[in-house]
Amino acid sequence: MFPSVNLRLFEAMACRTAVLTEANGEGVTDLFEDGKQVITYSAENLLERVAWYLDHDEEREAISSAGSERISRCHTTTQRAKQLLELLKNSVRTKKRKAAVMNSLGQTLLNYFLKWQDKDRQALNDAFNLINESLSVERTADGLITAGLILTLTGQHENALKYFKSAKIQFPDEQISYLYSGVSQYYLSDMPGAKLSLAKFLQSEKDTGGAPGTEAFYSTLGDLLRENGNDFEPGLMKSSLPMHFWSALEYYIKAAEIKPDNWEVVGDMLMEVNSPDQALKAYDAAGVTPLEKLIRARKASYY
Fold first, then answer.
1. d(CA 55, CA 85)
2. Are residue 85 and residue 70 in the same domain, yes or no?
3. pLDDT value at residue 200
4. What is the residue range of 54's domain?
5. Which pLDDT does position 213 carry in this prediction?
6. Residue 181 to residue 145: CA distance in whole angstroms
């Protein structure tokens, strides 16, 4: 829309910097007020403007503050995403197609939150609203499970379980709903229910060779949780790893308490979250660990 306005302009203004930019740039003065939020120049007055603003600190600071405030109020990535969502929603004419679009957008926002949850928790609420809106038009297994995952992330395990159970009843072939039901029941301290749900899921996925409570059960559950969490990447923030990762770690620890070989997997996962000292303890408990893993953990150790 405004070819001469690039991302650098917004980034600089967001950093509370007084931005000096070309006056003939199409779009700048449509978005920002010259002399109040941004400073424009022409070939004729460039040196004059630079000299004046270098000598007038208060005026320069006022522009940098006003520009930063304008960015925060009108031009964040979240606000652009919302504008895009509205455009997409309004461009779809049939109800069924609109539901599919909203479901996809909700999942996109969920992934956005999982990557940047330290930035904007509102994305999670927006994702839930979009998914719920899509479910009001058409019930899908994907939508029910995604809604449940969002509620799980906000600690609403009881409500999450309702969505997972609905997915199980309405879409019995979607076995992944048993996995998520089991995890929710686990968080709600319903261990008998959790074991039943997880056993049902494991039966459908692969033979564990062991009943709930055995080492094979726990290690297989850890494998499955870890595999099914691959779609939810943590992005740059290691503290933002998804629920699946931490749940998998818990189950690997349970497996390791029964069969020490599993401590090596625990050590590997602890290295993923930059905890080399704890990883070393896990590797020691495993007994036999490849030398390269021990060397890497010792090099990264804080002690």
1. 45
2. no
3. 77
4. 7-74
5. 60
6. 10
Whether 168 maps to a domain, the answer reads: no
Give the predicted TM-score (pTM) of the model.
0.48
What does the alpha-carbon distance between residue 174 and residue 94 come to, in Å, rounded to a whole number?
Answer: 26
The answer to the question of residue 87 being in a domain is: yes
Q: How many domains does the chain have?
A: 2
Q: Give the Cα separation of 87 and 290 in Å (integer).
A: 54
Residues 6+ apart with CB under 8 A from 91: none
Residue 252 lies in a domain: no
Cβ atoms 267, 286 nearer than 8 A: yes
How many Cα atoms within 13 Å fall on the side-chain side of residue 39?
22
Torsion of CA 110, 113, 115, 118, to 10 degrees: -170
Q: Which amino acid type is present at position 38?
A: V
Averages of pLDDT over runs of 10 residues in the chain (303 residues) are 69 88 75 88 89 91 91 79 69 66 77 61 81 87 88 86 92 82 82 79 55 65 62 38 67 86 89 84 86 86 71
Distance from C-alpha of 76 to C-alpha of 17, rounded to nearest angstrom: 16
pLDDT at 231: 38
Same domain for 111 and 54:
no
Q: 170-199 burial string, b = 16+ CB within 10 Å, else e?
A: ebeebebbbbbbbbbbbbeebeebbbbbbb
**Cα–Cα distance, 182 to 25 (Å, whole number):** 57
Pair 258, 244: CB distance under 8 Å: no
